[in-house]
Amino acid sequence: EKAVNLKKDLAEMQEWMTQAEEEYLEKDFEYKSPEELENAVEEMKRAKEDVLQKEVRVKILKDNIKMLAAKVPSSGQELATELNVVLENYQLLCNRIRGKCHTLEEVWSCWIELLQYLDLETAWLNSLEERVQMTENLPDKLDAVNDALESLESVLRHPADNRTQIRELGQTLIDGGILDDIISEKLEAFNARYEELSHLAVSRQIALEQQLQTMRETNHMLQVLQENLAELDRQLTSYLTDRVDAFQMPQEAQ
Known about the structure:
- By secondary structure, the protein is an all-alpha fold.
- The protein has helices spanning 2-24, 34-71, 73-134, 142-156, 161-175, 180-241.
């Protein structure tokens, strides 16, 4: 009777493993939304816990069969053979479920990381857009134009590392067929805005550099003119002080 019960327990254990494999490992999952992916991660965590909890039952079966084999070698040998099959299948099931759980957790982590990088770069784009707007309607003063140019250039020096991460993370998920529609839409919107703002910012940078150069040249010309006028004024004042007749002066002084 003991052998019969153990044989029944082994059969039930094998049946449970077959059902677990069908439920957790053989279903085709399509993750088209973050909610579906998150639910799949939680389901696989529960599956891993469920499978690992059966470890106690497997150990009890193993101990009972060993005890029976010690008392009734003939019955125990047959059960030991069946037990080895169950143990192999159980270990394989554990490894596969652990692997799938780890994979899904990595995928979810990849998705969260992508969102974080998108948030960072979106904040940078907002800052860039703000700086570009600040370059409009500037007062016609050298300091104002110079400050606006330096402010814009400081934002444009933003490193490209985050955009590289966005591209790689997005492509990894899309290649795996995970959230591909959502990610493609997000990346397309981000890239379009990035290209538009970058080109606009660089155009404004070039325009400000040209404006600044023109203003500096104009200021230099005015400074030279003022120095020349000051020298001329000094000479004329000297002539007047000395009561020199105009016709005795050089032509330019006349």
